[in-house]
Amino acid sequence: MYVIVLLISFSFKFPATTVQPANATALSARDSLSTVSSTEPKTDKPFPFPGPKLESQWRDVEWTEEQKTSLMTSVSSYKPSCEEVTEARVLLLGPVSSGKSSFISSVQSVFNGRVTNRAMVGSSSTSFTKKLQSFKIRGEKQKDLTGLVLCDIMGLGDGEMTGLTLYDILSVIKGHVPEGYKFSPDQPVRSESVGYVKRPSLKDKIHCVAFVVDASKILTYPKGLSTTFQQLREHISDLGVHQVALLTHIDKICPETAKDVTQVYTSRIIQDMMGKAGTLLGMSTSYIVPVKNYSSELGLNVNTDVLLLSAVDHILQYADLYFQDNTPQYESKIDKNFTA
């Protein structure tokens, strides 16, 4: 009996993403960041188990009702340290199904006192969000707005159907893209686009970018996605906008955390995945926070609320750094201190 073994080599190539300078005036649809697809077939890989859980939390968090109340008060009372604006605009940016829209709905659910889906959430491999949508987060009394606006945009890696280019994203951050603008693969954002804001003020701009990545997909994301993220981060940094990251779906990679979210910072699995997320994004883990969004739940959980509110508080800290860096009043105070 003869046994013939055939070795077949498969090679997956990710097209290089052409990046134009941040001050470019136009970019064709072919220069789309979506050339890195996050929807390609992947083989499921078991999550490594780094070992038993840690003896103590590697980040200090108080899992109490009092802490939840304190964080809610902090977020509700937040006001930008700039007289020109009343709200911090935060752009959520990440691959398809990473949990951007779910995070928005989860944060509003905490203040609503019940689970609600304010931002439409899709369940397929393609992005449900097709246009720029801004969600003003309301406080406990609902009639009172907080100083936070979460902006949702279509996911990265939708094949050829997104039309989302680097120039599109930078135009959103610079404040040129109007609310409700629908992105098209044939028509990148241009100065001739309907509603294009030619001279955006500080209140029109994005004040912080929060990258969103799915913890359960970190090991299977395409290699090219890391390059895409780092290209984005470089150009966003050139605009003086601070960046943080949310690691979602942590309950899918750690059974203990799925049962009890207070185990998040004693889980070696999550700690290890935080490091991998940092490598993917090209940022220190000090900028990354793990979150568990509400999905199938019908009621709130105080510990999940604490984790979500801690993430919001983290985001607002970096949004405020933007105002400190770009506020004339703040700059004038610095000048006076130096000349005194």
Order of helices and strands: HEHEEHEHEHHEHH
Q: Give the low-confidence spans.
A: 1-31, 34-44, 122-128, 330-340
The radius of gyration computed from the alpha-carbon positions, rounded to a whole number of angstroms, is 21 Å
The average pLDDT score comes to 82
**Adjacency order of strands in the biggest sheet:** 2-3-1-4-5-6
Task: List how many beta strands DSSP finds.
Answer: 6
Category from helices, strands and their pairing: alpha/beta
Distance between the termini: 93 Å
Give me the CATH fold name: Rossmann fold
Biased composition (Polar residues): 30-40
Keywords: Signal
Region (Disordered): 30-51
Signal peptide: 1-18
Strand and helix layout:
Blueprint: H1 65-76, E1 88-93, H2 100-112, E2 133-138, E3 145-152, H3 166-174, E4 208-214, H4 224-238, E5 242-248, H5 255-259, H6 268-281, E6 288-290, H7 302-326, H8 328-339
Parallel strand pairs: 1-3, 1-4, 4-5, 5-6
Antiparallel strand pairs: 2-3
